[in-house]
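User: Sequence in, structure out. Go.
Assistant: Echoing your sequence, followed by the structure tokens.
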Amino acid sequence: MLEARELVLERRGRRLLDGIDLAAPGGRVTAIIGPNGAGKSMLLKVLAGELAPTAGSVRLDGQEMSTISAAALARRRAMVPQSTNLSFPFTVVEVVRLGASVPGFDGIKTRAHEHADQALETVGLGGFAARLYNELSGGEKQRVHIARALCQLDAAHRMDSETAVLMLDEPTSSLDLAHQVRVLDEARRQAGIGRAVLVVIHDLNLAAAWADDIVLLSAGRIHARGKPAEIFDNEILSEAYGCAIEVNRTPPAGVPYMLPHLLAAAQRNGEAS
């Protein structure tokens, strides 16, 4: 399990995260949602060990994150940021293998190659191994980095007692509908094999359909947390996002979906005319 307790992050005199408590257990998809500037990406970086908190702690299976070596951490968690710039002319498969080429992955070259090929198939890029990364579209590059994270976790040797964590920051932002479904289905599959999955996502409808647990951030604090049916509430969302949001239900499954309040939009249009 990945846990944060009383997490605080300050930068340049500003408190970006304040008193964050959360738990992301293995076997579940936890979606982190909230308005722009709420601190979602910063929270993910602190949880990944990329940023040190100003106060509080992050623990992985009860162990303080800061005490885990870089090599051990690489075997136990993989992170896909919002964007990544690569200036060298890497091929796609070379990028995918990067995650399994850091210290701690010594002696598993054949294993990494096999998992790299499988990861590319998983994200729908099976024929792209020899393509140059910099010649891909934005959505294809995004899927390459998701494949990199999958390869990293699959190639690593871990004890059965060690939770593997997959962290995705806006993994569907550049993807069409079919690939959004493919990536989020894979997130659910990762949870199904016991991994903890954390996803920062702006699309509330995707979060409602694929997440087990929701963490709603607002102004660096947790505004609400719980299952989608508990969090996707008109009052909770409208207060956090600062606009009128109406939660609806799709028959027959009853999965919530969210739209801006059309009546409010119509009223604004009427006032403008």
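User: And one key feature?
Assistant: Residues 17 and 102 are 30 Å apart (CA to CA).
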